[in-house]
Design goal:
The chain is α+β, with helices and mostly antiparallel strands. The chain is built from three helices and four strands. Strands 1-2-3-4 form a four-stranded antiparallel beta sheet, covered by helices on one side. The longest helix has 18 residues, at 25-42. It starts with 7 loop residues before the first strand and ends with a strand. The model has no long low-confidence stretch (mean pLDDT 86).
């Protein structure tokens, strides 16, 4: 699934927690590990952003949420953490 820049919702500087998501421990750990991997890859020139596809695409693609590594305004890698 290609993630596009218009789906970016906010820059995420702090690791996600299970308290905010109300998820089972293993699911929350998987999400946190995905975020940490992107954060390590970001280095000095990258940023980690949250994304969600717009409601108009949910019927065809489902509701996608996750994190994207952004450099110079372009998504270079993305991890989908929920597909409902």
């Amino acid at each position: 699934m290609k993630i596009i820049e218009e789906w970016l919702t906010e820059r995420v500087d702090n690791a996600p927690t299970s308290y905010a998501r109300h998820l089972p421990d293993m699911a929350a750990l998987r999400i946190r590990m995905a975020w940490q991997k992107l954060q390590r890859q970001a280095g000095d020139d990258g940023e980690v952003w949250a994304f969600q596809n717009p409601p108009s695409t949910w019927k065809k693609q489902g509701k996608l949420t996750g994190y994207a590594l952004v450099r110079e305004g372009k998504i270079v890698e993305a991890v989908t953490v929920a597909n409902t």
